[in-house]
Design brief:
13 strands, 3-stranded antiparallel sheet, 4-stranded antiparallel sheet, 183 residues, alpha+beta, 2 domains, Outer Surface Protein A, domain 3
């Protein structure tokens, strides 16, 4: 039995959970998410909690047991609290700006790079000293992480100077340059 899969998910107040055929819908104060349940697992809703059980002991059922439970838990947390990722734009002359749903990043290329935010994702840009902080919010954990990764990929942190776009909690270990190499 999966350690994660056998744990029940408590349904907080203000959250509605509906299961129709194999589609689970979770509706809360921040929005609504849906998930197609894999045929090898079943979901039971009752007594203010959600339980995920596998139908048999096949390999795919064992794999999907804990995965399905985690996805449902992420949906419940997303519609109540939401998810946030923060990015730092570090570098002399590097800028970030938000115009509507378009994030404009001036990060050392000839032209500023533009990134259009998908539906369900909100962003906020603040200046902190010389750096800019981009805050990405949403109810879908996967989508928030994907958007943050795509923005970071525009200019990944440099290994020698540390310039670029990085996660706020990311630690960059700088390499020594030519002058720092011992002979």
């Amino acid at each position: 039995m999966s350690k994660i899969g056998k744990r029940p998910i408590t349904i907080p107040k203000g959250v509605e959970v509906n299961l129709t055929e194999n589609i689970l819908k979770v509706k809360g104060p921040k929005g609504e998410l849906s998930l197609e349940i894999h045929p090898s697992v079943e979901v039971e809703i009752g007594n203010g909690e959600i339980r995920v059980k596998r139908k048999n002991d096949e390999k795919i059922a064992k794999a999907m047991h804990g995965t399905t439970r985690s996805l449902i838990n992420n949906m419940v947390k997303g519609v109540t609290e939401g998810y946030v990722k923060e990015l730092l734009v570090v570098g002399a002359g590097y800028k970030a700006d938000l115009k509507g749903k378009e994030l404009i990043l001036d990060v050392g290329y000839a032209e500023p790079k533009k990134y259009i935010l998908p539906d369900g994702i909100k962003a906020e840009v603040k200046r902190e000293g010389q750096n800019f902080k981009i805050r990405i919010e949403g109810i879908d954990k996967q989508k928030v992480g994907q958007v943050a990764a795509e923005i970071r990929r525009i200019r990944e942190p440099d290994a020698y100077k540390g310039k670029g776009i990085r996660y706020a909690d990311e630690v960059i270990k700088l390499k020594p340059g030519k002058a720092g190499v011992a002979k």
